[in-house]
Amino acid sequence: MSDYQLYCFAQSGNCYRAALMLNLIGADWQPVWIDFFGQGVQRTPAYRADINEMGEVPVLVHGKKRLTQSGVILTYLAKHSGKFKPQGEDEELEALRWIIFDNQKVNGFLGPFRFLKNFAKPAGDPAVMGFMKGRIDGALAIVNKRLEKAPYLLGERPTIADVSLTGYLYYPAEEFGFDIGKDHPAVGAWCERMKALPGWKHPYDLMPGYPLGTQG
Ligand SMILES: N[C@@H](CCC(=O)N[C@@H](CS)C(=O)NCC(=O)O)C(=O)O
């Protein structure tokens, strides 16, 4: 049995944050595939009773500890590994600030947008998609401005705030209908820097269940 088990599936950028962090810190971990699209395991009463009352993935299991919310998982793994860890109170708060902004405004919109475009039946209403695309571009422009000033969100070195931001940013442009890196060049350059870190892998290579319909 590996040190860590991560409940996840390949199409989830929320899970990707945790999977990528585990790989970047060189942890001994194994994925536990969640059949999100098929049986919708995460919505069953058993899952909510035994795995996560919030009905979500990712879920990280480390011995007797069971953690959910990628921001919490990243904080825990940074504390335990000493890697990608914000240093001191000011950096800790700054990292949390960007993680919350990302969860709500950047990947918080990219995830549902991509879901409505590729997986939902019926697909998203054009008016809703248009609204979401506006919010996405607004939030990415804010991140882009920040990344024009420094290589990583908190400055010269990558922290968990950067790992959080990776969420949906490496999924293919066709799945969004726009190219994030081209539209927001400083974000595109940052994606390349993150990609160069030892242990980086694409979400479809890191988590089980791709292509859709294959058993993880
Ligand atoms: N803020 C959460 C978001 C987690 C989340 O929304 N996960 C999605 C999968 S990508 C989920 O489990 N949704 C439950 C559902 O739609 O039933 C995190 O970062 O962990």
Brief sketch in words of this structure:
This protein has helices at residues 13-24, 45-50, 70-81, 88-118, 126-149, 160-166, 180-183, 185-195, 203-206; strands spanning 4-8, 29-33, 59-62, 65-68. With 216 residues, the protein is an alpha+beta fold. Helix 1 links the parallel strand 1 and strand 2.
How would you describe this structure to a colleague?
- Helix 1 runs parallel beside helix 3, helix 1 crosses helix 6 and helix 4 packs parallel to helix 6.
- With 216 residues, this protein is α+β, with helices and mostly antiparallel strands.
- It starts with a strand and ends in a 10-residue tail after the last helix.
- 51% of the residues lie in helices and 8% in strands.
- The longest helix has 31 residues, at 88-118.
Structural class: alpha+beta
Spans of 5+ residues with little confidence (pLDDT < 50)?
A: none
User: Helix and strand succession?
Assistant: EHEHEEHHHHHHH
Oligomer state of the chains in this structure = single chain
- Count every beta strand, where a strand is a DSSP E run of 2 or more residues: 4
Report the helical percentage: 40-55%
Distinct ligand kinds: glutathione
Instruction: Determine the N-to-C terminus distance.
Output: 18 Å
Overall geometry comes to globular
Tally of helical runs: 9
**What is the gyration radius calculated from CA atoms?**
17 Å
Largest sheet report: 4 strands, mixed
Strand content: 5-15%
Main β-sheet, spatial strand arrangement: 2-1-3-4
